[in-house]
Amino acid sequence: MLVRCMGYYCKGYWEGWPPPQVECKVTDALHVLQGTKLSPTRMPHSGEIFWCRHCHNEAKHDNEKDVKLRHELDRSLVTEVVCALCSLRQPVGDHCCRCGVAFGAYACTLCPFYDDDVSKQAFHCADCGICRVGGRENFFHCDTCGSCYSTKLRGRHVCVERAMHQNCPVCFEYLFESVQPTAVLPCGHTIHSSCLKELERSDSVSVCACCPICKRSLQDNSATWRYLDSMAASHPLPEEYVGWQAEIFCNDCLSTCTVQYNLVGLKCGGCGSYNTRRLALVPAVTRRSGGQNQQEDSQGSMSQSNGTEIVRRSRDQAMHLEERWSSEEDRQLEAYRGSPEGSD
């Protein structure tokens, strides 16, 4: 069975050479009719033959109208192959039992997987349980993440339990068996490399490009933070709003703190990042009324109900201002995106 749905063929000769080709609609690759076809058993369609698992999944999952019959191929159920040269159905092997034709320059009878393109440097990982490409010496298996990673990431990545055994957060394709290149983010989460590039170019990015799962920044944004510092300094709040504070959560250092509110952004007091989330907004009127209530309650000159009413009006005012400032924040962010230093 093919992990990469590539064309393969035998170096022998037969009448009508070169052999005909069948295009795989899933990967736009060509199956050359001198290898093997797969014959999965103990499945609802036992006895049917498919060129590769991608052809099977397209027919039995993507194009299957009956929801109850939709399924993907279980590699362990492939116990027979059919020689494309002499049409002999036989147990999984690396060559035909009748005509002796080799099923591929690379043959893995465990997957099963056959390929004649040795330039891909296919190898079988016993821990992953499947064949991968790129050369065994260029990869190592991370037991925590549950997949093979490039040796460049050995000791230099954040381990996340079974990080590869999940769907891509952008296109939702299962990453572990995907034929598309996968990137490991600084936070340890994984995503298709093509989806990552599309995410970085997306207009929906507000302050910086971040992980779709945990919202941690994808790169060092020190230059962007300095630019936002200058923007905050040149756009002070109106005097009547000075003293307002916001409780925030930082997506980069995972800390919670209280900072001065600003239209440009809310800067983390710990790491200096603007990649933060606002948890609560505390207007200055609320804080003053709280202190005034305590003083006047001690003197008996003001009832508790009046203090509660002041707090309620202050909160209503805060909600009204948040609605006004949300559009102002959007305009400031648009100005930031258009700046030379803040653009990707």
Account of the protein in words:
This protein is of the alpha+beta class. It has helices at residues 53-62, 193-201, 222-234, 284-299, 304-337, and strands at 21-24, 29-32, 36-40, 78-83, 89-91, 106-108, 113-115, 123-125, 130-132, 139-142, 147-150, 182-184, 190-192, 245-250, 256-260, 276-282. The strands form seven sheets. The chain has a three-stranded antiparallel sheet with strand order 3-4-5, with no helix packed on it. A three-stranded antiparallel sheet has the order 15-14-16. Helix 4 packs antiparallel against helix 5 (304-337). It is elongated and about 90 Å long. The two termini are 42 Å apart. The model is unreliable at 1-23, 25-34, 288-311 and 332-344 (pLDDT under 50).
Oligomer: single chain
* Biggest β-sheet description: 3 strands, antiparallel
Shape assignment: elongated
* Alpha plus pi helix count: 5
Uncertain stretches of 5 or more adjacent residues:
1-23, 25-34, 288-311, 332-344
Radius of gyration: 30 Å
Q: Order of strands in the sheet with the most strands?
A: 3-4-5
H/E element order: EEEHEEEEEEEEEEHHEEEHH
- Estimated structural class: alpha+beta
How many beta strands in the DSSP annotation?
16
β-strand amount: 15-25%
Helix percentage range: 10-25%
Q: On the 0-100 scale, what is the average pLDDT?
A: 76
Q: How far apart lie the N and C ends?
A: 42 Å
